[in-house]
Amino acid sequence: MQCLYIDMKERNYLLESEQELLKIVENCKEKPKLLIHVCCGPCSIFPLRFLSNFFKISVLFYNPNIYPHNEFEKRYNTLLEYINILKNENINIEVIKGEYNHKEYMKDLLPLKDEKEGGKRCFLCYKKRLRETFVLASKNNFDYVCTVMTSSRQKSSKIINQIAEKISSEFKDIKYFYSDFKKHGWSEEGYKKARDLGLYLQEYCGCEFSINNK
Fold first, then answer.
1. Which of 3, 53, 74, 212 has a CA that sits 20 to 30 A from residue 19's CA?
2. Are 42 and 190 in contact (CB under 8 A)?
3. Average pLDDT, the chain
4. Tell me: the pLDDT tens digits for 167-176?
5. Distances (CA, A) of 162 to 12, 33, 49, 166
6. What CA–CA distance (Å, rounded) separates 44 from 172?
7. Averaged over 172-186, what is the pLDDT?
8. pLDDT at residue 150 above 80?
């Protein structure tokens, strides 16, 4: 059975993101406001530094899927470490910490607990976190939404972008910024930089159903 989020036409999401950045450079007198969903510090290394050239960035750390709670806090604190490094370079980024409503969040995922990692359970998890990002962006007059999840070597950029595109159709006041942060070795570059900075590198995606696979 073909996955709901995969179509037959191959899209170049990196090219689409580059074209959007050109429009911003040519047409915007001020940097537009971007709310970017962040899953962890290492995945943020390249995207935050790069996108800060074009956007006024706020970060949403909304990841109630992460288990246990001390792992959630460890990843959040790692993100703050990196944000402070950027601040010392005069790159100022606001960080919004989402609620850790783990039990409530996992109710929808529990029926899919036996799915293989990278399957339907993960797609639903992406959808829930991206939707929350759009809701918050809409309430606070952001111009764009993006996610650093396309940095992850374990996640499909195509599926993440397709899920976000579908959600964006419900939010006419916000544009989704397509991305593929794995291209050009950016993902490897980010993880190397994280190691060089001594940032915490997690060993599993965060979900309690994948914790035994680390």
1. 3
2. yes
3. 93
4. 999 999 999 9
5. 12, 22, 24, 6
6. 27
7. 94
8. yes
Do 78 and 63 touch, CB atoms closer than 8 A? no
Query: What six digits make up the tokens of 83?
Result: 């944000």
End-to-end CA distance of the chain: 29
Residue 111 phi, psi (nearest 5): -65, -15
CA within 13 Å, CB half, 84: 8
Q: Is the peptide bond before 47 cis (omega within 30 degrees of 0)?
A: no
Q: What is the spatial order of strands in the sheet that 56-61 belongs to? A: 94-97, 56-61, 33-37, 144-147, 175-176
* Residues 6+ positions from 200 with CB-CB distance below 8 Å: 41, 74, 75, 77, 78
At 96, the amino acid letter reads I
How many whole angstroms separate alpha carbon 173 and alpha carbon 161?
Answer: 18
What is the number of residues in the chain? Answer: 214
Give the span between the Cα atoms of 53 and 193, in whole angstroms: 19
**Dihedral (Cα; 108, 111, 115, 121), 10-degree rounding:** -10
pTM of the model: 0.93
DSSP SS3 for 208: coil
